[in-house]
Design a protein that fits this description.
six-stranded mixed beta sheet; Rossmann fold; 5 domains
Length: 598
């Protein structure tokens, strides 16, 4: 049976094509003149592309008709570690035998033995034939293309020798299949430094970066973002690099993604999608997962029109389709319903968090919020503070993940610490910030980031080893401004100070002189006591000096005072233990019945 676009084609023409199913090639025969002549003659007469698919036993297993530009391929099983075992020949009625982007993409994604394009000239005569084969580039599958060949040279081509060489090369290099790992090309219109951060984000998402494509551009192209000519260059570049993913450093519209995927035959995402994916992988709490899912749905709802490979429900291979324009309203309605349900669930969690916050407010315990650019060392500092100043009030003091990785931790944690002065403080470790942080993500994480708004002191942790520390400070300040927390008392804690150049340090101190700046190393425990000393100077003193008389039969209260206050004097009187101590509001309230009024 002939597949594809057969509308308007006469029955006897289809019958002539169907007779090709009875033709069987020898095992070592690449193609023969008879098949080539039949294909070229019929393709010329109907002015449509014809594709035939041949297995290694020489059987023609599929014949399809397309339009003047493309024909359809059959469903093909992709084998691990070897080629698919089939080859295709198709006509190009435009006369040019050079393989198209679609041809090359099909060759690589389906791991075909070969793809051959037959360029047709006047009266359906064959001009020449170009053949493409898979190869290995950077430990991933790429392609190579022959020079245009004559009919005679094509018919006599040693096909079996070539595919044997290719499969040995695949086996030797242990090339993974497309589903094993993603290999990305990064696209930017800013600077190499901006792509450095994008590469770190890609690594945080287990994506291997195999190439960069930087373009200087003052005006963004509405159709392809980088212009159609550059998009074609990008296609060839990603083919050479063996990439199966393209990541843009700037946000793309739905139509730009669709057009770029059509040109490059590759999944295309932007920085926002990458960050959302990292958050989706790292969120562990129920609240964090809901927040990420909500941000994803909000983002996708604005990009739904035209999104192709990256939003396809069936994957990104040849023959798959995206959401489909006919289902657009249904998909929008489904997203709206999901957003509404998630908002309701998040609101319940927010109420619980609000109650917990009110209890902390009533306790009068001062609050410190650790903020900063991602990977600056906030979690390392938080873990160190909890170990150095254990509160010993039954709180869980396990470490949070501290790793040299962007967005290593996402879930906000609050722990109590007790200073040598017996003051109790709460320390909140927040999610790391970043430039171009998706607005929907900030909105979704408002409930957890609200902890910053309620803090008494913000400790802004900086990465002293970063070459772009000034830009990172500004990026964090922008997020704090959006949270209405920029005017909070703030200390700049320059972490990893041992890696920072003195000249750079002086520049930061001069430019950001409005802040108190402390040089620390959370890794080597340098100047942490100085940091806490400056924090306590900012926090209002809520302690008082009191005298208590505690009966001898209530010695547990004496132990409590020793743990939670500064004991100035203690002696044993006639009616009990008399203690003069400095206490905070919480201890004062618990000890009210033992207080001596004089």
């Amino acid at each position: 049976m002939i597949k594809g676009n057969i509308e308007g084609i006469r029955e006897h023409t289809l019958s002539n094509l169907e007779e090709l199913y009875d033709v069987k090639l020898e095992k070592d025969e690449f193609i023969n003149t008879e098949i080539l002549e039949i294909l070229s003659d019929i393709s010329y007469k109907i002015n449509r592309e014809i594709n035939i698919t041949i297995d290694r036993r020489g059987n023609i297993i599929d014949i399809s008709i397309g339009d003047s530009k493309s024909a359809q391929l059959p469903a093909i099983d992709i084998n691990e570690g070897r080629l698919s075992g089939i080859r295709t020949f198709h006509t190009h009625p435009n006369g040019i035998s050079r393989l198209s982007n679609v041809d090359i993409s099909a060759l690589i994604k389906l791991k075909l033995d070969s793809v051959a394009a037959i360029g047709l000239g006047e009266n359906g005569k064959i001009n020449d034939i170009t053949v493409g084969f898979c190869t290995v580039n950077n430990n991933s599958i790429g392609y190579e293309m022959s020079r245009p060949m004559s009919i005679e040279k094509t018919v006599n081509f040693d096909y079996l020798k070539k595919i044997t060489e290719i499969e040995k090369l695949l086996e030797k290099n242990g090339v993974p299949t497309e589903n094993d790992r993603e290999y990305a090309v990064l696209i930017g219109i800013d600077t190499e430094k901006s792509l450095d951060e994008l590469e770190e984000l890609a690594k945080a998402c287990d994506v291997s970066v195999v190439g960069r494509f930087l373009q200087k551009r003052t005006k963004i192209d509405n159709v392809t973002f980088i212009g159609s000519g550059k998009a074609q260059e990008l296609f060839m570049f990603k083919q050479i690099k063996g990439a199966n993913l393209i990541i843009f450093d700037d946000e793309l519209t739905g139509i730009q993604v669709k057009n770029l995927e059509e040109i490059t035959n590759c999944k295309v995402i932007d920085r926002t999608v990458l960050i959302l994916e990292i958050f989706a992988r790292r969120a562990t709490s129920r609240e964090g997962k809901i927040q990420v899912e909500l941000a994803q749905l909000k983002y996708r709802s604005t990009k739904l029109l035209g999104y192709g490979i990256s939003m396809s429900r069936t994957g990104g291979g040849i023959g798959t389709r995206g959401l489909g324009e006919t289902k657009l309203e249904m998909d929008r309605r489904r997203i709206r319903d999901n957003i509404h349900a998630l908002k309701d669930e998040l609101e319940k969690i927010r109420k619980t968090r609000s109650i917990q916050r009110e209890k902390r407010e009533q306790s009068g315990i001062p609050k410190i919020a650790l903020v900063g650019y991602t990977n600056a060392g906030k979690s390392t500092l938080r873990n160190l503070l909890v170990r150095m100043y254990p509160a010993n009030i039954g709180a869980k003091n396990e470490d949070v993940l501290a790793k040299n990785m962007l967005f290593a931790t996402l879930d906000v944690t609050t722990r109590m610490i007790m200073l040598p002065s017996k003051r109790i403080l709460s320390v909140t470790d927040t999610v790391g910030f970043i430039r171009k942080l998706p607005h929907d993500l900030i909105e979704a994480f408002k409930s957890t980031l609200d902890e910053v708004s309620y803090a008494d002191v913000i400790v802004h942790v900086l990465d002293g080893s970063s070459d772009e520390i000034e830009e990172e400070i500004v990026a964090v300040e922008n997020v704090l401004l959006e949270l209405n927390a920029l005017d909070k008392p703030t200390i700049l804690a320059i972490n990893k100070i041992d890696t920072m150049e003195k000249e750079k340090l002086l520049q930061i101190k001069e430019k950001f002189s409005k802040y108190t700046i402390i040089e620390i190393s959370a890794k080597y425990n340098n100047n942490i006591d100085l940091l806490i000393e400056n924090v306590t100077k900012i926090i209002p003193q809520e302690t008082r000096r009191e005298k208590y008389i505690i009966p001898y039969n209530d010695t547990a209260i004496v132990a409590y005072l020793h743990r939670n206050s500064i004991i100035e004097n203690e002696y044993y009187g006639d009616s009990g233990v008399e203690i003069i101590s400095v206490v905070n509001d919480e201890v004062f309230n618990k000890m009210i019945k033992y207080k001596v009024n004089s």
